UniProtKB/TrEMBL annotation:
It comes from Lentzea cavernae. This is HTH cro/C1-type domain-containing protein. InterPro entries: Cro/C1-type_HTH (IPR001387), Lambda_DNA-bd_dom_sf (IPR010982). Coiled coil: none annotated. Residues 15-71 form the HTH cro/C1-type domain.
Length: 93
């Protein structure tokens, strides 16, 4: 029997808007979060559908928002890509 685990799904549109509002660059955010520019770019552009909880927490601090404001926690299903597609569609609305 498979036990469900939790993961964080990205809300890229909101991340992009907050970076714009605060005048933050990908490089600046990456340095403050302690990750690569590629990771931040992928998160911001919706190319990365999930991320590590530590990166998520640090990104939320940098963007000055409450925990789990930019990421939603979901249960991992047998088809996790379906969950991420649902979130991506709702984020685009």
């Amino acid at each position: 029997m498979r036990v469900a685990s939790m993961r964080l799904i990205v809300r890229p549109r909101l991340i992009r808007q907050l970076m714009d509002v605060h005048g933050l660059t990908i490089r600046g955010v990456a340095e403050q979060v302690g990750t690569s520019k590629t990771t931040i770019e992928q998160i911001r552009d919706g190319q990365r559908i999930d991320t590590d909880a530590g990166v998520a927490a640090r990104l939320e601090q940098v963007l000055r928002v409450e925990p789990l404001s930019l990421f939603c926690r979901i249960r991992e299903s047998l088809a996790p890509e379906a969950d991420a597609a649902d979130v991506r569609e709702s984020d685009a609305a």
